[in-house]
Amino acid sequence: MTALSPAVALTRELLRCPSVTPVDAGALEVLERMLRSAGFACARKIFSEPGAADVDNLFAKFGTGRPHLVFAGHTDVVPPGDLQRWRFQPFSGEIAEGKIFGRGASDMKGAIAAFAVATLDYLRRHGSVKGAISFLITGDEEGPSINGTVKLLDWARSQGEIFDHCIVGEPTNVSALGDMMKIGRRGSLNGSIVVRGKQGHVAYPERAHNPVPAIARIAAALAGHELDRGTAHFACSNLEVTSIDVGNPTVNVIPAQARMSFNVRFNDLWTPETLQARIREIAQAAAGDTAIEIDFAPCNARAFLTEPGAFTRLVARAIEEATGRKPELSTTGGTSDARFIVRDCPVVEFGLLNETIHAVDENASIADIDALTAIYGRVLEYYFGAP
Questions:
Q1: What is the pTM for the complete model shown?
Q2: Among this protein's residues, is 141 annotated catalytic?
Q3: Top-level CATH class of 187-296?
Q4: Which residue of the set 141, 337, 344, 362 is catalytic?
Q5: Domain residue spans of the chain
Q6: pLDDT per residue as tens digits for the range 24-69
Q7: Catalytic residue among 24, 32, 56, 76
Q8: Could you confirm whether domain 6-185+303-384 is CATH 3.40.630.10?
Q9: Residue 151 CB-density burial (10 A; 0-12 exposed, 13-18 middle, 19+ buried)
């Protein structure tokens, strides 16, 4: 078998750590050992909060002063699901047909390996750096995101760390490496509405109050309402009704209550507060005289945007020169930990393909991992130059 490149070998080592959220399973130790040997100052931080699992995180830094470039990512992964459906065991890191298979190959252990190897290559070539390079690695991105990046950022800030720019290694590409980088993400808001009625026999509706027509009107009004028409960098916001439930298995009983759940993916025209107010208006108008109860889950996913500028051009240049593709600057997709990092500095996301993430037989192209390593290496050269 042909010898593996350093980035692919590191990807395999990380894949062999079954780090299903919130378990670390040795993945951070693999990185810490490698970074310490290259002269990085490393800090492992375990954060706790009542009602949430403890999470192990890693902050590693080389150099001092500014500019300060951060690579961010997560070593935790989603569960593999039915093991019988996998071609190879999901934590074996098997290689076949030019791909490496395993849970987390694309999301996002391959990218972490790529930027770690690219950074160490840069330091071997130049010996030092004009400023600082850091790694912000969490074990809580695929979970509730309570004891991970947010608290690690707060801790770093308390230590006097100031970040200038960040690259998150999320799998951003759709069809080929280099076709898309993220410069922002939509926000996400969850809510529920309850209509309380009065239970009774369907043959005597005058003795009951049926909540189903009201919940149906509310659902139709919310789903059919045009929240906005999008912005220069974002698509229009969309509200999706995800559940309607009356808890009634009997056809001749008017139910006592009806509940619906919904999610809104919203652009930068909205804050969670203004969006909640608008949803309340629409729902109450549809309900008419019927009393309703609206609840919103705490929102830690606001829409954000890194305005295109010198940093986005630098990253896009490195991508285009390495792949021949000019990346689309996108804000599509779900949420990521970039939503927390943007509080501290401009952030872009660029990693591997997202075709197989969270799927059975998740995999990454070996050639893409090596190409991504080269892209990150170019970014470092353009960002810092030679010391």
A1: 0.91
A2: yes
A3: alpha beta
A4: 141
A5: 6-185+303-384, 187-296
A6: 999 999 999 999 999 999 999 999 998 889 999 999 999 999 999 9
A7: 76
A8: yes
A9: buried
